[in-house]
Structures are given as C-alpha cells and as structure tokens.
Amino acid sequence: MSRVVVVVCLALAAAYSPVLADEPREVLEMEIAADIDAIWEAFTTTKRMIALKAVTFPEGFAFVEAAQETWTIFYFSPISTSRTKVTVVGLGYTDSEQSQKMRSFFEVANAYSLRQLEMALQD
Asked: Whole-model pTM?
C-alpha cells in the first residue's frame, strides 16, 4: 500500500472519538486494532508522530485557499502490544467560511480514513 494511500486513509478515521479542542485545532483520536509497528510502517520511521502539509491539490478541490493555511500532525501512542492510539490534529484553521467547511469535511473524512486503515491492517 503506498504511503499516499495510507496517509489519506489515516487522515480520515476508524472507531474514533473526537477530542474537544480549542479553536482553531481539529483533533481526532482513536484506537486501532493493530500494533504500533504495523501502523507506523504505513507512515514512516520514528513511531511517534508525523506532520504533513499539502502543497498541491486535486482539480476541483473546493478548499484550496483554506488548505494552503493548514497542516496535520499524526501522533501514535502504543496502548498495548496489539493496540495503538492514533491522534490526528488539524492546525491552521481560521474563522473563514471556507476554512470551517473544510474542517467539517475532514472531521468526517479523517474518521473514514482511519477506519479504512484499521480494516486494511486486519487483513
């Protein structure tokens, strides 16, 4: 599975619980039924966090202006030898209408992606 697909999937979410946070952060945490090594392998190498900033966007992406101001950090915390908590933190959101619409989009999309990741790791 390519890192791009994994990052997109992880950016979305599974069996998650939203975490309340002060504006302008968007935070998502969930436990995935996979050990931290399997999850991290889907990302990269340090096993604790990775920060991502999109610099190009697909044609027709509705939030280009807002997305240019945001970035995402993924935190990985081992719960046990077979479970890992993944926390997705979206930063740089503003009070603009486009930014708030994008935030709402990624709250759902990130949850979906993490669920997809968890299903892929169970196979």
From this structure: 0.65
